[in-house]
From TrEMBL:
Belongs to the glutamate-gated ion channel (TC 1.A.10.1) family. Residues 469-810 form the Ionotropic glutamate receptor C-terminal domain. This is Glutamate receptor. Keywords: Disulfide bond, Glycoprotein, Ion channel, Ion transport, Ligand-gated ion channel, Membrane, Receptor, Signal, Transmembrane, Transmembrane helix, Transport.
Amino acid sequence: MRAVGIISLLLLHFGYLQNVFSANVSSRPAVVNVGAIFSFNSTIGRVAKIAIEEAVKDVNSNSSVLPGTKLVVQMQNSNCSGFLGMLGAMQLMEADIVAVIGPQSSLVARMVLNLANELQVPFLSFAATDPSLSSLQFPFFVRTTQSDLYQMTAIAEIVDYYSWKEVIAIYLEDDYGRNGVAALEHALAARRCKVSYKAGIPPGSAFSRGDIMDILVKVALLESRVIVLHVNPDSGFMVFSVAQYLGMMANGHVWLATDWLSSVLDSFSPLPFDKMDLLQGVLVLRAHTPDSDRKRNFLSRWNKLSGGSFGVNSYGLYAYDSVWLLAHALDSFFNRGGIISFSNDSRLINLEGSDLHLDALSIFDGGSLLLNSILQSDLVGLTGPIKFDADRSLVLPAYDIINVIGTGFRRIGYWSNYSGLSTVPPETLYSRPPNRSSANQNLYSVVWPGETVIKPRGWVFPNNGKQLKIGVPIRVSYKEFVSQVQGTNNFKGFCIDVFTAAVNLLPYAVPYQFIPYGDGKKNPSYTELVESIAAGDLDGAVGDIAITTSRTKIVDFTQPYAASGLVAVAPFKKLNTGAWAFLRPFSRLMWGVTAASFLVVGIVVWILEHRINDEFRGSPRQQLKTILLFSLSTMFFSHRENTVSTLGRLVLIIWLFVVLIINSSYTASLTSLLTVQRLSSPIKGIATLKASNEPIGYQVGSFAEHYLIEEIGIPSSRLVALGSPEAYATALQNGPKKGGVAAVVDEQPYVELFLSSQCKFRIVGQEFTKSGWGFAFPRDSPLAVDMSTAILTLSENGDLQRIHDKWLQKSVCTSDTAEIESDRLHLKSFWGLFLIIGVVCFCALVIYFIQIMRQYFRTAPTESLSNGEGSSRSKRLHRLLLLIDEKKDPSKREPKRRKTERSSSDSVLETSPKRRQATEVDILPHNSRM
């Protein structure tokens, strides 16, 4: 009975589900009408028409999608016309369609999407790539292909990968072209590149070969040789034809075509020989569609579908997937209770007397629900995953990068928004962490226009006869570096020779003219010269221009061709050897610590030897004399007293080692002091200048003024501007007390040239900045890179040094071998030695006093018993001092085997009256000695 009950419940439940399913199916219409708007005769339209028709057949034959409902598509030919597209859309709206596949053109899309907003009909465009078509402005617009925003990002990353800085954009003068190039400009700017020139081609048939000729002639006169072509097939092939005629498809040029060309190549490959000959070396982007069994099956039956007249391109695949996306969304729409119904717009009904029959247009009541079903779709089509992100863009955008070679093309890599440029398919990289590092960006080799595999430089000097305006400072001092030839605009000097030598090494001609900069009365401001380049007044600057952080923010510099760190120059005086020259090797602190160490070591040895060594005993005066003579005599290793205790010998050995090092260092320093001429200056470097309040000189126009004020923190009131080497010498000779300066801070090349004829001054301290001179050019100028390579070549082959010797090799002062006062021997060079002897002395004393205290505590109980009473604190201290001063019995100290030797030596001591007297003293009672 229980089994029967369970079966009955299952039957009832099954019947309930069947009734629900039947009700759901019955709520679905038998036919769902959708529309399609595109250009039937275009490259994309021919493929899309077959793909849409085949997709509808596949949907209707698949029982798992829209069961019981037939999908019917009504197509309208927009012929790439906004007006015709609007009319076609209105005709579809009159037929109560629920969604539209299309439009194909971005121009048509912008015209009809306002109608979609009003009637709430979703538009699924498989080819409108204009990035400005946003879901905010057109909420019922769904892009089922990739936006040109990603395509232009891919182009920008290719440009950056090959280190090109400027591109020329040739585009179709409509929304598709203008907005695509705008996206390209933003993508390039994010990588410090730019579109240097834009040339628009009129859309439709409003252009001729002559118009293209005029555009490309202007392009040929420009500097950049990287051209991005964002047009349609008709105008694109005409551009390539004229470019070949003008020689712009030869070596040195780079052509990057957007996916309009890949659509043609995929649809009509192989192209006729004359057309393929125009495309040799061109790089082309194509929307990436991963390989799959479903895609291969569709491609295998495409030849039958098209009759072999053309192939399928990526837009045809997107059109096919758009139909399937809409079918799944309609299925979800019906499952969620959606009903196809339309209502009239009251605003259209009230239009009386109109012959347009606008009242036939109806609002789709379920438009919002269907739109949500579309955006929430998650399926896999021929083009890969079909899923939308928060911006209503397809997830995981990617492109193939192909290179046209011979009669076909070759894929050289991929671009994906996930990992950038790669030779690995994007779907493989999706399983790995994203890596956009430069080392991970790779492409295969490319055959460029002109049948070369060498990467084009990407720019040349323009062929319009324009010369580069190179600013050159007019110096009034140190003219060896740069100076103007009297009465001309020509210049000469070290910097000019380096520039001309570097230009001669370039593999191309550089037309330029020197532009004098400055009034000739004082050195110009080099910062203002650099700012003139950033403002576009000059194309570069040549001269002794220091490379500083602030300047590199507005211009680009070449590789430094000369070191130019800041140094300080000050007067000096010769050190007089004199009567007290022997004290100079050590500093005062060194002398003090050394003397104290001698005394401390003498006292320590006396303490360790006093109880057991007769030579360290006697009257207080005699013992003091012994300490002093012993400590001082160790300086010459001639001490007369012998040490007998182990601790005393240890301290003495370590101390003699220290004395050896000190004596050797003192001797070497004194020898150098007396044989090598020494120079002295109160200024030791930039730290001394900063700590003082004395005036400091600097060269007019140099960056030293800004550095001293902003970086060092020296008040501007202390700085004195000097305009010539003669002014340097006068100010330094006068000194602060006579209205001069304590020192001059300037760049090292100027200082070296100044000191070659001024022997009364020297560089003090170390170079406190690391900088160099370079040639300045505008930001991202490719000439700066090539000039840097040329300067490195000059340095490697020795030409740079020869130019330096030609202009800057001067006779040196006879006292050039003299040195500024070297550092004395300071305590910091010997503190380790003093630390060692200090530690040894301390440890020896600790061990010694431990031994004394042990002996004291052993004798204390005995004396207490003999006295019969406790000792006071003063008595205990007195007894400790007596124990320290007490002479230790030799018989208790020496081993038995040495007593015989000791007795034999006593006979020798008896022959010496002094020794005998000392012995007798030791035999006296303890109290009599004290």
